[in-house]
Amino acid sequence: MNQNDLLNMRYATITEARTDMYKMLEARPANYSLDAPLYNDPHMFRVDMEEIFQKEWLFVGMTSEIPKRGDYITVEIGQNPVLIIRDADGSVNAFHNTCRHRGSRICTEHRGKVANLVCPYHQWTYDLKGNLLFAGTEMGDSFEKQKHGLKKAHCKNAGGFIFVSLAEEAPQGDFDEFLATLDEYMAPYDVENTKLAAESNMYERANWKLVLENNRECYHCAGSHPELLNTLLEWDDTNDPRAPQDFLDHYAAQAAKWDAEGIPHEHKSYGPGRRNRIVRMPLKKGVKVMTIDGGEGCKKLMGNIQNPELGSMRILHLPNSWNHMQSDHFIVFRVLPISAQESMVTTKWFVHKDAVEGVDYDPERLRQVWDATNDQDRILGEQNQLGINSIGYQPGPYSETYEFGVMNFLEWYSETIKKNLSK
Ligand code: 3BY
Ligand code: FES
Ligand code: FE
C-alpha cells in the first residue's frame, strides 16, 4: 500500500466499504459528481474490481491483432493476468494467464506467437485450447493431467472486437444484441484484413472512472484539445440537443451519401446509461479523418470503403472502451484500472493489411492528434484526481447539456454496482 492509498483509506474492512458504497450510490444526486471515496478509497477500488472488472464484459483487443494460430495478446485486469489466443480452428479464446502448477504467469509479453504455451518456471506445456500436454515425468503416475488445464475466461468477438468476462457466469442482458449491431456496423471495415499500425500505453495517475468521465464530455475540448478540434465536431451524437442547424444540414448531406453506399450510421444504444452505443458522426466539413490537418491518414481505404469522408463511427462500450472508426484507419481505446488512483490507457491505430508503412501511411502522422489529445486528457484526469483527494472537495454539479454523457456513464456504473451488491 503506498502513501497515497493510505491517506485516502476510510474503511477497515471490505464489508464496510461495500455497505457504504451502496448507500452513497443510492443517495447520490444523478447530476453531481461522486463522493470522494468512490474515486480514491482503496477498499472501494477493490469493490469496483470485484463487481465491475471481474464480472462485466471488457474490451481487450481486436481479432486482427492475432490473425494466425498461436498468436496471442495479454492484458492485466487489475491483478488478473489474462491471455487471449487464436486456436488452430480459428476461434479466439481467453484463459487466466496463470499456470496450474504453482501459478506462475505463463506469457510474459504484451503479444507474441507460440506453438504451445510453455510455462517459464518448470515448463509445464499447454496446447492452444488450454489442455495440459506435458508436465514432465516428475509429477508421478497418479497425476491427472486432464484436471490441470488452464482456466478459461468467457470470450466473445464481433465486428473484430474481442471482449472477455472473468465472471463465473457471463453477464447476459442485451450484450448479444450489441454484438450483432457491431457485426453489421463493422462489416465495411473487413477487420480480419486490417493490421495494427501503432500502439500507445499511457499510464495515468487517476481513478478509472475519472478517465471515463473525461472521455464522456467535450465541455473541456475547447480549453484543451486544439489538435482534435481541427477535425472533431463536439456534438455527442446526431440527436444532441445543442447541435445547430448547420450541423444537422451537414449531417443530412453526409448521411445521404453513406446511405447510398450502404454505410451504417444510425445511432443505436443498449443498456442502462446507453452502456453500449454506436453512432457515425460527421467530422468537420471537408475533413477526411482525424489527422492534424484533416487530410488522409492512409492512402488505402479500409475494407470495401470508397468514400474518404465517412466521419467517425463512435463505438462506446462501458466500462472500458471508446473508439473512432474512420475511412482510412480506425482507433480503439481501452482503459484498465491498476489501483484506486492509477489506470492504463491503451490506444491502437489500425490500417488496411496491405497498406505499406512509409509509402501508404506514416505512423507518426497517424497517431499525432490522439497522442496529443491523450496526453492533454491525462493531465486533466490527474489534476481532477489531485483536487478530489483534498478535504476541500465536495461533489459538484454536471452541466446537463454538456455533460449528459458523464451522467449516463454514472447511471450505468451506479445501477450495475447496486445490482451486483444486492445479489
Ligand atoms: O472524441 C472522443 O472520444 C471524446 C468524445 C468527446 C470528447 N472526447 C474527446
Ligand atoms: Fe508453471 Fe511450475 S509454475 S510449471
Ligand atoms: Fe478530452
Automatic annotation (TrEMBL):
Coiled coil: none annotated. Its cofactor is Fe cation. The keyword Metal-binding applies. Keywords: 2Fe-2S, Dioxygenase, Iron, Iron-sulfur, Metal-binding, Oxidoreductase. Residues 57-164 form the Rieske domain. GO terms for molecular function: dioxygenase activity. InterPro entries: Rieske_2Fe-2S (IPR017941), Rieske_2Fe-2S_sf (IPR036922), Ring_hydroxy_dOase_asu_C_dom (IPR015879), Rng_hydr_dOase-A (IPR001663). PROSITE patterns: RIESKE (PS51296). The keyword Methyltransferase does not apply. It comes from the Bacteria. Its EC number is 1.14.13.-. This is Aromatic ring-hydroxylating dioxygenase subunit alpha.
